[in-house]
Amino acid sequence: MSTPAINPSVLNSDFMRIGEELDRIAGADRAHIDVMDGHFVPNLTFGPSMVEQMARRSPIPLDAHLMIENADREALAYAEAGAESVTFHLEAANAPVRLARELRRAGVKVGVGLRPATPVEPLLDILGEFDMVLVMTVEPGFGGQSFLESMLPKIRRTRQAISAANLELSIQVDGGIKRETIALAAEAGADVFVAGSAIYSADDAAAEITALRELAAA
Ligand code: DX5
Ligand code: ZN
């Protein structure tokens, strides 16, 4: 497992001032960009051209989290837009292995996401195709929800499976991550932490990022 990474989600930032909002998190590891299509989740955010503009403007790399249907057809556009990593949801891909390989060929790190009701077991035989597993710790769609502690066993099972296969994948957790919950997820085996409202509602986003990183490493 690598040192903990903090990826603030810009979902609850001020979209009218997105450039400055990206600057506020310059001390983070990556900016987490929640792409929502109004179908896979009941919310709508950015498309590839907005992601491309953010990639050009952001002081740190982009971690694109695609909450979209038809991932097989749509995901490559986000790699081409300049994201460093692209995560699609297992539930939204017809051919996840083929898609993961296409994305890797396009030069990005590839994540695969699991909604709370989706088990990790269908992934176990294909883990080597990915760089990261995203275990959602809320039902995807909105920021500001409460961390689901019931996801901790899934994080643990995922970490055990990665170790047993002698692989080096990251485990990202997303949803309800804040000072009170981050250590639980870290202890279960997560090493990449998305935090939206905790960071963007803080007066000092940089200090919040540092505090979260320290709690995750403890
Ligand atoms: C939820 C998104 C998250 C969200 C996290 O569907 O994937 O990235 O922005 O927000 P918080 O940290 O407020 O739960
Ligand atoms: Zn997300």
From TrEMBL:
Pathway: Carbohydrate degradation. GO terms for cellular component: cytoplasm. InterPro entries: Aldolase_TIM (IPR013785), Ribul_P_3_epim (IPR026019), Ribul_P_3_epim-like (IPR000056), RibuloseP-bd_barrel (IPR011060). It catalyses: D-ribulose 5-phosphate = D-xylulose 5-phosphate. Transmembrane segments: none annotated. GO terms for biological process: pentose catabolic process; pentose-phosphate shunt. The active site is at D34, D174. A divalent metal cation binds at H32, D34, H65, D174. Its EC number is 5.1.3.1. Its cofactor is Fe(2+); Mn(2+); Co(2+); Zn(2+). Keywords: Carbohydrate metabolism, Cobalt, Isomerase, Manganese, Metal-binding, Zinc. Binds 1 divalent metal cation per subunit. One of its GO terms (molecular function) is D-ribulose-phosphate 3-epimerase activity. Substrate binds at S9, H65, G141, F142, G143, G144, D174, G175, G176, G196, S197. PANTHER family: RIBULOSE-5-PHOSPHATE-3-EPIMERASE. Belongs to the ribulose-phosphate 3-epimerase family. HAMAP family: RPE. Catalyzes the reversible epimerization of D-ribulose 5-phosphate to D-xylulose 5-phosphate. This is Ribulose-phosphate 3-epimerase. It comes from Brachybacterium nesterenkovii. The lineage of its organism: Bacteria, Bacillati, Actinomycetota, Actinomycetes, Micrococcales.
